[in-house]
């Protein structure tokens, strides 16, 4: 049972990245390649997108996990930086790992995370609190895709899962 729990997050990550399930972004072109291509093309956008942030912890995970800000406003083609805060409320060190999704799912293909804490183990000592950055970019092609008409809000949602409990 412990082995299944430990393996669940990496397996889920691989499944989501391969299939795009749950709004997980599939990669074809790197973010750097997209930014360079649109810079060379002189792509300009006017539409403003509101990116809202959500944070959850799995059952039994004694952490407080919240977005530092509720939302940011960004135009397609721009990058933005946001922060989440995690705090270990227990009296023991705890290691956790987060998964994420982007909704609406059809907008996820345009949402590119440049730097993120997801799918990386985060170990917090008792009472420790950390800020974790998310640096992202919305592809300017978002603005010209007719399937994105009427979509002006994107939700970036993270859930932290307990990976291991240290016995020290």
From TrEMBL:
<dbReference type="InterPro" id="IPR007533">
    <property type="entry name" value="Cyt_c_oxidase_assmbl_CtaG"/>
</dbReference>
<dbReference type="GO" id="GO:0005743">
    <property type="term" value="C:mitochondrial inner membrane"/>
</dbReference>
<keyword id="KW-0812">Transmembrane</keyword>
<dbReference type="GO" id="GO:0005507">
    <property type="term" value="F:copper ion binding"/>
</dbReference>
<dbReference type="InterPro" id="IPR023471">
    <property type="entry name" value="CtaG/Cox11_dom_sf"/>
</dbReference>
<comment type="function">
    <text>Exerts its effect at some terminal stage of cytochrome c oxidase synthesis, probably by being involved in the insertion of the copper B into subunit I.</text>
</comment>
<dbReference type="Pfam" id="PF04442">
    <property type="entry name" value="CtaG_Cox11"/>
</dbReference>
<protein>
    <recommendedName>
        <fullName>Cytochrome c oxidase assembly protein COX11, mitochondrial</fullName>
    </recommendedName>
</protein>
<keyword id="KW-0472">Membrane</keyword>
<keyword id="KW-1133">Transmembrane helix</keyword>
